[in-house]
Amino acid sequence: MATKSKFKWSEIKASSPVFSMARSTIETAFYGNNVEKIESLVECYKIAKHSPGTIVTDIPVERPEEVGLDQGAKVLLFNDGSVTGRTAAARKIAGEPNVEVNGLCSVVRDAIYATRSKKLYHVRAYIGLDKDFMVKANLLIPQTHEMLMYNWLLNFQYITNEYTKMYRMSNQMNNEGDIYIFADPDWSHPDYPLGLAFFDPKHNCAAILGMKYFGELKKGTLTLAWGIANRNGFVSCHGGQKKYNLENGKSFVAGIFGLSGSGKSTITHARHDGKYNITVLHDDAFIISTKDGSSVALEPSYFDKTQDYPMDSPDNKYLLSVQNAGATLDEEGRIVLVTEDLRNGNGRAIKSKLWSPDRVDKIEEPINAIFYLMKDPSIPPIIKLKGSVLSSVMGAALATKRTNAERLAEGVDPHALVFEPYANPFRTYPLSDDYEKFKYLFEHRNVDCYILNTGSLDDKKIPKEVTLGCVEAIVDGKAKFKKWGNFDNIEIMEIDGFVPDLDDAKYVELLKNRLNDRYNFINSRKTEKDGYDTLPDEAAEAIKELIDKLNK
Fold it and tell me: Is the CB of residue 301 less than 8 Å from the CB of residue 154?
C-alpha cells in the first residue's frame, strides 16, 4: 500500500479526504524558494558533517556502502542541551477533545513565516519496508539542524531505486496523502514553554516546533504512519518482533510489547546463546496485517540507548550516529565516545540494520504469541492469559515505570507506576481501535497472550536470565502452566523463588490494589478526554471478575 503524492485538479478541493487546513498550511511551506531538496544520504552526511556543533569521531561506519554511505564515513555525534527525552505534554492532536485546530494552525503559519529568511532543507524517506505497506514521508527543517535531518534519513528508509521500484508495486491508498512534517527546533512561544508537536493524523501532517531531541521527529513520523496503518487493516505496534526458526520447517513468531527500559530490545535481539536460528523484524516499530497475520517493519535501523554499551562493547561496531553522549581521546589520540549515560540520561544511538545478523523487512508467517512486558511488583515472572477480552484489556492496561526517555511536565511523579495502552503513547486514534484489533488477533488468529514481569516481584528483582528462560520454555513447547489460584483465565508458570503466596494477606492486598488500579484506569477512559478512549463495558468487567475472584 502506498500513499498519494500527486493529484488531478479535480481532486484538489476542500471536500477531499486528503486535504485540510493543517495539511495545506504545512505542505505549502515545502515549495518555497528558500527550500533546498537533499536527494541522497551521502549528500546529507556531507552537510551534517560540517553542521555547527557536530563532532566527527574517529570511529568508522561498518560496511558503509551497505547502509548508503561512502567508504570512509565516520560516526557523527551531536548533543542537544538539557532536554534529552520526549515531551509528551507538548503533543496536540487534531480530532481529540479541546484541541482547537484553527488556533494551532495560526501558530504554525506564524512559525513557517518566521523561517522565510532561512534556508530550509527538504528530505524524503519511505516508512514501511515491504510493498504490503509503504508510505512516503517528507521532512522540512531549517539550516543548522542538519544532524536532525541526517538522523531522520538514517532512521527511516532513504530513497533508493530498489525501494522506489517496490513502492511503485504497492497498491495505492487513494485517500491517504504522503506524510509532511515541518520542524523548527529554534522556535519558541510563551504559550508553549515545552514546545509544540501538533498533529493532524487524518491528513498525515505535523508541525514539531521548539524541540531539539531527535526522538520527537522519529516518533512524530511513526505517529502518522501508525495512524495510516490503523485505517487500512493493520495493527499498529510499538514493540519488537522476532521469529524462531525451528526444526522441520516450523517457526514461532513472537511480538514483544513494552516501553523504553522494559527490556523490549533486549528480548527482541537475544540470541539465547546460539540455541536458536533467529530472524529479527524490528525492535520498535512494525505492523500486523489483520488479513493474514503477516508483519512488516517500518524502519531499517535501530534507535538504541547507549547506557548499556561501554566504548569497548562489540555492539558499537554498528553505530551510525550518536546523540547526547560524551567524547574523549583514546590512547592513540582518536576521538571516541563516552557512553553509559555518564554525560546525561538517555544517551542514544542509531545503529545500522547490520546489528541483527538475520534481519528481515517482513515476516510472512502469522504471529503466534504476544508478550506484554510490565514492571508490576504484583505479577510473577510470567503468566498466561486466556480469552480474547482479558488478553486485549490487559494490553490496554499495560503497566510500567517511567524512564529518562521522557521529559515530564512539572508536578508529574517520575517514580509512579503508570499505564500505557499497548506500550504505545503515540496513538492518534481512539483506544478502542487498538482494543478491537488486538482482540481480533487473540480471537480469530489464535494468538497466545503472556505477561512478562521484567521488574520485580514484590521487592525481589527478576533477572534477565529468568525472563529469557520463560520465553525459551514457550518456544520449545516445554512450558508448564497451571491454574493460578481462583482465576479461571490466568495460568502461571511456577519458577523457584518467584511463586507468590496467595495465602499471604499482604501479597493478596498488593495484587488486589494493582487490579483495582487497572479497573479504575479502564473506567477513567469514559471521562478523560470527554470519553475519546472509552472501551466496551466488557473490558472493565473482565478485570472486575479477577478482583471478585480474589475476594472469595
Answer: yes
User: What pLDDT is stored for residue 405 in this prediction?
Assistant: 55
Residues 6+ apart with CB under 8 A from 209: 107, 108, 111, 183, 184, 187, 189, 192, 195, 196, 197, 198
Amino acid letter for position 363: I
Q: What is the CATH number of domain 236-290+368-499?
A: 3.90.228.20
Position 77 scores a pLDDT of: 98
Q: What is the pLDDT of residue 462?
A: 96
What is the CATH code of the structural domain delimited by 16-52+89-233?
3.40.449.10
Mean pLDDT of 65-78: 97
Alpha-carbon span 454 to 373, nearest angstrom: 6
Kindly list the domain boundaries of the chain, sorted by start residue.
16-52+89-233, 236-290+368-499
How far is the C-alpha of 188 from the C-alpha of 113, rounded, in Å? 14
Mean pLDDT of 459-472: 95
Region 277-297: what's the mean pLDDT? 95
Segment among 257-271, 304-318, 462-476, 494-508 with least mean pLDDT? 257-271
Res 401 pLDDT > 70: no
CB atoms within 10 A of CB 410: 7
What stretch of H or E contains 537?
Answer: helix 537-551
CB 355 within 8 A of CB 302: yes
For 230-289, the DSSP string reads HHTTEEEEEEEEEEEE-GGG-EEEEEEE--TTSSHHHHHH--GGGTSEEEEEESSEEEEE
How would you list the strands of the sheet with 55-60, edge to edge?
55-60, 74-78, 319-323, 348-351, 302-305
The DSSP 8-state label assigned to residue 381 in this structure reads S
Looking at residue 411, its pLDDT comes to 62
Indicate the pairing of strand 326-329 with strand 251-257: unpaired
Cα–Cα distance measured from residue 511 to residue 547, given in angstroms and rounded to the nearest whole number: 9
Rounded to whole angstroms, the Cα distance separating 183 from 141 reads 5
Asked if residue 406 lies in contact with residue 86, where contact means CB atoms within 8 angstroms, the answer is yes
Terminal Cα-to-Cα distance of the chain (whole angstroms): 52
Report the C-alpha gap between 440 and 447 in whole angstroms.
Answer: 9
The C-alpha cell at 120 is 530550509
Region 346-371: mean pLDDT is: 95
Q: Is the pLDDT of residue 219 over 60?
A: yes
Statement: residue 260 has pLDDT above 80: no
Chain position carrying cell 522556535: 187
